[in-house]
Amino acid sequence: MPQLETVDKILDAAELLFAEKGFSETSLRMITSKANVNLAAVNYHFGSKNALIQAVFSRFLGPLSKIMEDTSKEHGWGKDNIPSLEDILKLYMHSLLKIPSSHENGVAVFMRLMGLAYTQSQGHLRLYLEQEYAKTFRLFLELVRLSTPELSTKERFWRTQFTLGSIAFTMSSIQPLTEILENSKDAKANPEEIVDLIVPYMLAGITAPAMDVN
After folding, report:
1. Which CATH number fits the domain that encloses residue 189?
2. What CATH number is associated with residue 41?
């Protein structure tokens, strides 16, 4: 089996198992069994379980970061050309849909993994994400800051977290939510339509009148 094919099989299996069971609950032997490879292959290509977890995230975040950074540069966004908050949110959401994946519900898998990164004890992963993707995270947060000068630092921080939480829940549950809609209302919705629906909702939440929460 070619080495690249082996790596892809391991990553495919790891993504699904981590998203389904969590990082701690997923063993390397479970991954090798699902990928139909031996443990030596995992050790050879990744070296450790932590390195495999990081590689799974890089598979998603690498393309996402490039799409967001390239689009921002293309429009010349920055202090001298501040985009609207709506454009920033659309950039992030549509970038998510463009991430290549070998799974049918790749975005859902990615959002479940992102949620696990902050709810399970994975200090090495948070450190890795901060080191490797700090530029993209800072770009997104700086654009949000520039586009919402009326908000205090505290309000902007929490409203951004509420927004990211809404995205994580909606996109990670997109299949069951769509099935509920189709079964109860005889209506259909695809990911692009859901993005078009969620952006105005997030925009209204972030730009709601500022409140004194002290």
Report:
1. 1.10.357.10
2. 1.10.10.60
Number of domains into which the chain is organized: 2
Q: For the chain, what percent of residues have pLDDT higher than 90?
A: 64
Interatomic CA distance for residues 19 and 111, integer angstroms? 9
Using pLDDT thresholds of 50, 70 and 90, give the confidence band for residue 185. Answer: low
113-164 confidence digits (pLDDT tens): 988 887 877 788 888 988 899 888 888 999 999 999 999 999 999 999 999 9
CB under 8 Å, gap of 24 or more: what pairs does 36-39 form? 36/9, 37/1, 37/6, 37/9, 37/10
Question: What span, in angstroms and rounded, lies between the C-alpha atoms of 115 and 19?
Answer: 9
On whether residue 170 sits in a domain, the answer given is: yes
- What is the enclosing helix (H) or strand (E) of 4? helix 3-21
Distance CA 150, CA 66 (A): 30
Q: Euclidean distance between the first and final Cα of the chain, in Å?
A: 61
**For the whole model, what pTM was predicted?**
0.86
Return the pLDDT at 213.
56
